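Name: 3-methyl-2-oxobutanoate hydroxymethyltransferase
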Amino acid sequence: MNTSPYPHLQTIDDKPVTIAGLKTMKARGEKIACLTAYDASFAALEDRAGVDVVLVGDSLGMVVQGQSSTTGVTLDDMVYHSRITAAGLSRAFLMTDLSFLTYATPDMALAAAHRLMAEGAAHMVKIEGGGELEPTIRHLATYGVPVCAHLGLRPQMVHKLGGFKVQGRDEAAAAQMIEDAAALEAAGADMLLLECVPSHLGKTIAERATVPVIGIGAGPDTDGQILVIYDILGLSPGKKPRFVKNFLDGADSLEAATTDYVAAVKESTYPGPEHGFK
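Structure predicted for 3-methyl-2-oxobutanoate hydroxymethyltransferase:
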C-alpha cells in the first residue's frame, strides 16, 4: 500500500491498468486520469503519479518536433515514441495515436495498428473520426485491436476545419456526434475521447456510453480527463487553450505538479467551469 499523502496514491492498485479495469472505474464513478507522454522519463514520472492512461499522441508533432499541426507525424515517429514511452511504464495503460492517413482503409489501419502494438508496445490505438470509421473500427476489433475513437475537434482535420475550433455547438452537429459515438461503440470501440465540445454534450455522451469517455475541453462530466503533459507544466509555447491549467504553478517539482493533476481529476476539482465550453 502506498503511504503518500495523496489519497489517490494511498488506495492505488499497483497491478497494471486494463480495459476491464477502466470500465470498472467508469461503473463505480471513479475518474480516470490520463496524460500524454513521448519518452521513458515522462512516462515513469506519470506512472509514479498514478496516471491511469498514458497517450503517445501525435501532438508530438507540435510539442516535440515544433510543427504547426499533427499532419506531418509519420507512423515511424509514432512507433518510436510509443516504444520508448512503454519502457518507462509499469502500471499505466498505454494508448498510441494512428497518425494522419495511416487508416484510410480498414486494412491500412490494421497494418498500422499491428506496428504500434508489436513494435511500439501499445495496448490500444486511437483513431480520429466519426461514423465513417465504423467499418474500420469493426475490422480492428475483429482482429483483437483495442480502439479509442476520437470525436469532436480532430487535430488531423485542422486544415479542413480551418483551425482548432469547438465542435458540436449547433443542434445538428451535436446530434450527429451523439449518433456517431453510439455507432463507434457498437462497432467495437473500447473507449471514446471527446475534444473541445460543449460541456453538456460531453455529459450526454458519457451518460449514454457504456465504455469510458475521456474528455479534453469536454467539461467535468466525462469519465476521465486528458491533457498534454507539457501543458500542465507550462512548457508549451504560445497561447494556451481554455481547458488547460498549469499545475506547475505553485508546485515545487515536476512530480508534485503531475501528482496534483491526477489528484485534481480524481477529486473532480479539475476541470472547473472556466475550463469548459458552452
